Amino acid sequence: MRKAPRWDTLATALCLLLAAHIADCEPAHAEEQALQWSPLAPDLEQANTPLNPDSVLSASVVLIRSSLSRFRIQVIRASDFGQKRASAKSLCRESGASVCINSNFFDEQGRALGLVMSRGIIHQKIHRGGGTLTGIFFATPKSIGIAHRDLFSPTGVVEATQAGPRLIAEGKIVEGLKESSFRTNLSGVCIDRSGRAILYRATGGVFGSSLPLLQRVLLSPSVGCVEALNFDGGGSSQLYIAGEVPGHAGAEREENFPGRDEVPVVVALIPLKASDHSPR
């Protein structure tokens, strides 16, 4: 007659299983998996992928891509609509945007941290201290960019938001980031080799998100980011896609990836008027 397994033996086996799973989350074990970009509307595409294709418990990431030939970047503040903070969904609905994602970090009072610039007006200055808010995502009338805060110039810029850390710079992974602080939901933006804007939101799986794996996804050939910036994460991380996107493929389909906390600032994709459409 076989003896029942002892509890300490089961606990040890469980620990080994968990350790193996965590090891599988490391970049060295992640294999490249081509993303399938699906059109949502003219100049708007979506892709979904697990951060670690080898794990059924992996976090997942949704990406939205635009060349900005039919959309423009705009930084939207909750205060524009008489609120201190609001959800990405409500700010999208209020502003008529097609896509919105949270951006700036904020303090206990709900005030945004770092640079906030909208329609050419600087509402809040650059935050110079610390090692987190190191990057600025910005838009001019003809281009977009991500710059280190020390190298950023507001000349000619109409929209800008400050966050961090930077994940990819000049086509290379930024090393030395503190992984333990980011095993949770993640939001951010990147610019690919064709100059397109990609908004992304990683939803934490059982073991949370992984910055190294996210960096690998963003740098992969099917995404091709050359610059990437992390936005506020955790309970603030949220992404909203309106159903009424101009030229939306098929039936109206609203997609909402909500966060636990309302936020003071979002980055939005605003549809251009037909007369303003131009190739980039």
Task: Give the secondary structure arrangement, pairings included.
Elements (H helix, E strand, L loop, with lengths): L6 H18 L13 E4 L2 E7 L9 E7 L4 E7 L10 H8 L3 E4 L13 E3 L2 E4 L10 E5 L4 E5 L10 E5 L2 E4 L2 E2 L12 E7 L4 E7 L7 H9 L5 E6 L8 E3 L13 E3 L7 E7 L9
Antiparallel strand pairs: 1-2, 2-3, 3-14, 4-18, 5-16, 5-18, 6-7, 6-10, 8-9, 8-10, 11-12, 11-15, 13-14, 13-15, 16-17
Strand sequence of the main sheet, in spatial order? 1-2-3-14-13-15-11-12
How confident is the prediction overall: mean pLDDT?
84
Uncertain stretches of 5 or more adjacent residues = 1-31
Order of helices and strands: HEEEEHEEEEEEEEEEHEEEE
Distance between the termini: 75 Å
How many discrete structural domains? 1
Please count the beta strands (DSSP E, at least 2 residues each).
Answer: 18
How would a crystallographer describe the biggest sheet? 8 strands, antiparallel
Radius of gyration: 20 Å
**Structural classification:** mainly beta
Overview of the structural elements:
There is one protein chain. The protein is mostly beta strands and 280 residues long. The chain has one domain (10-276). Helices cover 12% and strands 32% of the residues. It has helices at 7-24, 88-95, 211-219; strands at 38-41, 44-50, 60-66, 71-77, 99-102, 116-118, 121-124, 135-139, 144-148, 159-163, 166-169, 172-173, 186-192, 197-203, 225-230, 239-241, 255-257, 265-271. The strands form 3 sheets. It has an 8-stranded antiparallel sheet, covered by helices on one side. A 5-stranded antiparallel sheet has the order 4-18-5-16-17, covered by helices on one side. Strands 7-6-10-8-9 form a 5-stranded antiparallel sheet, with no helix packed on it. It is globular. The model is unreliable at 1-31 (pLDDT under 50).
